[in-house]
């Protein structure tokens, strides 16, 4: 394996996607089985191709792209979890102009909110 890319986070995700396609192919109706079989083979072939590739620079770029996307998805779920945990103490609003998320303490009545990102002012009831 000297000079080869090897197994990285994207390879692991591709392998898990192939395993998921196997299970979905078994659970779902027979009509969609060929579709999941094709996805399974595509994921496995691409995983093996990436592991044996000598073009490590390109494979590292692909892995960095995957890690950025994965971090964005994890951050979104983390923000959902944080909002759920803080729902009793705070109310969350979106700015009408830039859609930034604003957190305001509950029970303060009508407030004039100012967006920290764009400076837009709007009124909301907490």
- Note the main sheet: 2 strands, antiparallel
Please state roughly what percent of the residues sit in beta strands, choosing from under 5%, 5-15%, 15-25%, 25-35%, 35-45% or over 45%. 15-25%
Task: Let me know the average pLDDT.
Answer: 92
| Number of separate helices | 3
Could you say how many structural domains there are in total? 2
Spatially, the strands of the biggest sheet line up as 1-2
Task: Write down how many β-strands occur, each being a DSSP E stretch of 2 or more residues.
Answer: 4
SSE class: alpha+beta
- Morphology call: elongated
Low-confidence stretches: none
Percent of residues in helical segments? 40-55%
Sequence of secondary-structure elements: HHHEEEE
Descriptive overview:
The protein has 126 residues and is α+β, with helices and mostly antiparallel strands. The chain folds into 2 domains: 1-85, no CATH class; 88-126, no CATH class. The chain has 3 helices and 4 strands. The chain has helices at residues 9-27, 33-52, 56-85, and strands at 90-94, 101-105, 110-114, 121-125. The chain has a two-stranded antiparallel ribbon with strand order 1-2. Helix 1 (9-27) runs antiparallel to helix 2. The longest helix has 30 residues, at 56-85. The chain is elongated, with a radius of gyration of 23 Å.
């Amino acid at each position: 394996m000297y000079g080869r890319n090897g197994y990285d986070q994207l390879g692991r995700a591709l392998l898990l996607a192939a395993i998921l396609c196997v299970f979905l192919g078994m659970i779902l109706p027979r009509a969609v089985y060929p579709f999941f079989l094709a996805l399974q083979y595509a994921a496995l072939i691409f995983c093996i191709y990436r592991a044996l590739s000598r073009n490590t620079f390109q494979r590292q770029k692909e892995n960095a792209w995957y890690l950025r996307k994965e971090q964005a998805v994890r951050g979104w779920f983390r923000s959902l979890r944080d909002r759920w945990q803080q729902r009793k103490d705070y109310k969350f609003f979106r700015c009408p102009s830039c859609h930034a998320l604003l957190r305001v303490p509950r029970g303060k009545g009508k407030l004039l909110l100012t967006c920290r990102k764009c400076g837009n002012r709007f009124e909301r009831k907490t």
